[in-house]
Write a structure and sequence with these properties.
Elements lengths: L2 H78 L8 H13 L9 H9 L8 H37 L13 H7 L8 H4 L2 H39 L5
Length: about 240
C-alpha cells in the first residue's frame, strides 16, 4: 500500500512533463510562425517601398509634364492674343506640339501591390494606418488616371480633328526617323496667322491649360498619397521617425 502514492506521484510527474512538452512545442511553433510572418511582412514592406518610391518619382515627373503643357498653352495664347510679342516659327511649332499633341502617358508599377492584395498577404502588415493608406491607394490613383485618359481623349477626339483642317500636322508632329523627316521636309511652311487669330483656337488653349492644371493637381494628390505610404513603411521598418 505504501507504494501506491509514489506510483501516482510518478504518473502525475510524467503526465505533467508530457503536458509541459506539448505546451512548449505549441509555444515554439507559435514563436516560429510569428517569426516567419514578421520576416514575410518585412519582405513585403521592402518590395512595396521600392514600388511606391518608383511610382512617386513617376507621378512627380508627370505632374511637371502637365504644368509644362499648361505653360505652353498659356504662352501660345499670349502670343495669339497679342499679350506677348510674336515668336519665330520653330518656337510656335514647339509650343503647339507641347500644348496639344504631346499627351504624355502615366505608367505605374502595380505588381507588388496587386500581388499582396490578391494573395491576402496585406493582412500580414500589422500597422493599421499603413493598411488603411494602402486600401485608399486605388481610389486616389483612379482619379489621376481618369484625368490622364480625359486629356488624351480630348486631344485625339476634339483638337486633332480641329487642327487637321487648319494646319499641316507634319509641321508640329515630331518624327524620329530621318527618312520620315526627309519626306516631310519639302512641305510648304505653315503660316500661323490664321490659326492664332481663330477665336476657337484661342478658347481651346485656355481650356487645355485648365485641363492640364487640373490633371497635375490630381497626379500630385496621388504623389502625396504615395509619400504617405512611404512614410508609414519607413516607420514600420524603423527607417524614419515613429
Amino acid at each position: 500500500m505504501s507504494k501506491a502514492p509514489k506510483r501516482w506521484q510518478r504518473l502525475l510527474l510524467e503526465g505533467g512533463a508530457v503536458v509541459a512538452s506539448i505546451l512548449l512545442a505549441f509555444a515554439i511553433d507559435a514563436w516560429w510562425a510569428d517569426l516567419g510572418e514578421a520576416r514575410r511582412e518585412r519582405e513585403i514592406l521592402v518590395d512595396l517601398r521600392a514600388e511606391f518610391e518608383a511610382n512617386r518619382t513617376g507621378l512627380d515627373a508627370q505632374a511637371g509634364h502637365h504644368h509644362e503643357n499648361a505653360d505652353a498653352a498659356l504662352r501660345l495664347y499670349a502670343i495669339a492674343t497679342g499679350i506677348e510679342r510674336e515668336a519665330e516659327r520653330p518656337m510656335l511649332d514647339s509650343l503647339l506640339d507641347a500644348t496639344l499633341l504631346a499627351a504624355g502617358s502615366l505608367n505605374l508599377a502595380q505588381g507588388v501591390y496587386s500581388s499582396i492584395v490578391s494573395s491576402g498577404d496585406v493582412g500580414l502588415i500589422e500597422d493599421d494606418s499603413l493598411r488603411y493608406a494602402l486600401g485608399s491607394w486605388p481610389g486616389v490613383l483612379e482619379d489621376a488616371l481618369e484625368d490622364e485618359v480625359w486629356i488624351w481623349e480630348d486631344v485625339q477626339e476634339r483638337f486633332v480633328p480641329f487642327l487637321v483642317h487648319r494646319a499641316p500636322l507634319s509641321s508640329v508632329m515630331r518624327f524620329d526617323l530621318e527618312a520620315d523627316r526627309a519626306i516631310l521636309s519639302d512641305e510648304v511652311p505653315f503660316d500661323y496667322t490664321s490659326l492664332l487669330s481663330d477665336r476657337a483656337f484661342q478658347n481651346y488653349l485656355v481650356y487645355k491649360a485648365w485641363n492640364e492644371r487640373f490633371a497635375a493637381a490630381a497626379v500630385l494628390r496621388a504623389s502625396d498619397s504615395a509619400r504617405q505610404v512611404l512614410r508609414l513603411i519607413d516607420r514600420r521598418l524603423g527607417l524614419g521617425p515613429s
